[in-house]
Specification:
single chain; 262 residues; alpha+beta; Cyclic Phosphodiesterase, Chain: A; nine-stranded mixed β-sheet; two-stranded antiparallel ribbon; 29% helix; 34% strand; disordered C terminus
């Protein structure tokens, strides 16, 4: 009987550990979200990711309570001076170019190489380190490889090969990061389909060459975060699509980083 009872006790302990692990599953991620217009084959519609939810993930973590959400908002405000110093009065422009895939099932747009990539990496590291310091992110969970998922071809498997080959070197445009918002992934979304915004962090600079600019602060670039007790950080963009005579699509985007929180 002791052996049997001991076995039951072990089973109960294992079940408890599984439940605890599930309850602590990551439910927050920082990401760059933006709107992107594509002129594409109508047959791809069912494979396309909804425009309001396009994003690049910067950080993933779990915020269990409103207190942690409030603390996360405070941490974002504390990061602002470091981000301003990092950017040094320059816009953070992200050029997106080229299409790749994961196992021919998930299609994503890549980030072109350059100093902007190093800057974005540093932004992600700053956010991660500050979240770790406040106990909002488990140490050792870092890892950042920016990519923008635009299609899930599992929804249109018959189009996989032609889509990947035809659009492999497509240029999607430059995006300037301007604002960071704290948004909820669980609350009712905004009319445009984007996440409910808890609070915003506007990074601004004064342009010294203009009296008007001294009075009107210019939007300053940064990254995004979107919370979920189930969340993530993202960039949202207003975009202008231009079609050239050669049918080359160029997308100009103003990007807003949003911290999405429950």
């Amino acid at each position: 009987r002791k052996i049997r009872d001991g076995g039951r006790r072990v089973d109960r302990e294992e079940d408890a550990k599984k439940k605890k692990k599930q309850s602590q599953r990551d439910n927050v991620h920082i990401s760059v979200t933006f709107e992107l217009l594509l002129q594409h084959d109508p047959r791809l519609a069912k494979a396309m990711i909804p425009i309001p939810t396009l994003h690049i993930t910067l950080l993933v973590t779990h915020l269990a309570t409103q207190e942690e959400v409030d603390l996360a908002a405070s941490v974002l405000a504390q990061v602002e001076p470091s981000l301003v110093e990092l950017l040094g009065g320059r816009d953070l422009v992200l050029p997106f170019s080229g299409i790749s895939h994961f196992r021919k099932e998930v299609v994503f747009v890549g980030l072109a190489p350059g100093q902007h990539r190093h800057t974005l990496d540093t932004v992600a590291e700053l956010l991660q380190s500050h979240f770790e310091e406040q106990g909002l992110l488990q140490r050792g969970t870092r890892g950042f490889e920016p990519h923008l998922t635009i299609m899930k071809l599992s929804r249109a498997s018959n189009l996989r090969s032609q889509v990947l080959v035809r659009s492999l070197h497509q240029f999607f445009g430059d995006q300037t990061v301007e604002r960071l918002d704290l948004c909820s992934m669980l609350k009712k979304k905004q009319p445009d389909g984007y996440y409910y915004t808890e609070t915003s962090l506007q990074l601004v600079i004064v342009k010294p060459w203009s009296l008007v600019s001294k009075l009107q602060m210019a939007s300053f670039p940064i990254t995004a975060l979107e919370l979920k007790p189930d969340s993530q950080c993202i960039i949202k963009t207003d975009r202008c699509l231009e079609q050239t005579a050669l049918h080359k699509t160029v997308v100009h985007l103003r990007v807003y980083f949003r911290f999405i929180a429950s």
